[in-house]
Amino acid sequence: MHTPSAPILYSFADPNNLVDSLARFIIKAQKESIEKKGRFTIAISGGSLAQQLNGLIGKPGVKWEKWQVFYADERVVPLDHEDSNHRLCNDELLSKVPIPRQNIHTIDYSLADDIEELADAYEKELIREFAQKDAARFPVFDLILLGVGPDGHTASLFPGHELLSEEDRWVAYITDSPKPPPKRVTLTFPVINHAARVAFVVYGPSKVDIIKTVLDKPEQGLPPSRVRPISPGQVYWFTDADASAKVEYPRTPFKL
Asked: Tell me, what CATH number does 111's domain have?
């Protein structure tokens, strides 16, 4: 087993610089992935993260037709519901760029009455994209974008929840989410930790204490601290000055 690399922390005084730098980072990851294997696989979480992706709109060098978009987690609600991660990402980004609709992989809400079947169906979406092409035990996403909740959850992996110990499934379900809506599906740690890159995007003063705990006290085992992609994978943190104000963890100047 390869030893995980230490996280890289970027902190931006200007929120606009964070958005622009994140866009440049994503485009570079996309370019390297397409050159290597002809496609770019990305998983996106919900919450406020989607709002930070609009820096991609109109940027040169984005090959939308090569993107395969999945969701790191999703709330089990209709896709046009205000709680849907897909709706948020669609409103903020996907509806504004020429990405083929068939390259956007959503949950099948028609299966909502049987959440286990719904999770299995979404796992099969991943299998169609990854297992047939990469022959890997777990999918290797080119990039997974995650946020962090004030309670320390990421994707729909909550502190103290039994899903934190899931080792086999690619997609798991939760029916007792500590924050509404209660029914969700989520990528598991084995999937997240096999990614080539994982980037947390966190901003605002409401996150200042939880980010300090995650980065300065990883031994507490909060879910984001458990995101340590196996080598050569790498985890990055894109934060603003408010979110990282109390963090003692060393910052790295952003450059590509």
From this structure: 3.40.50.1360
In a domain, 246, yes or no: no
Is 69 inside any structural domain? Answer: yes
**What is the per-residue burial (b if ≥16 Cβ within 10 Å, else e) of 47-58?**
bbbbebbebbee
Q: Is the residue at 157 inside a domain?
A: yes
In a domain, 75, yes or no: yes
pTM confidence score: 0.96
Look at the chain and report how many structural domains it folds into.
Answer: 1
**Each residue's pLDDT tens digit, 117-155:** 999 999 999 999 997 666 568 999 999 999 999 999 999
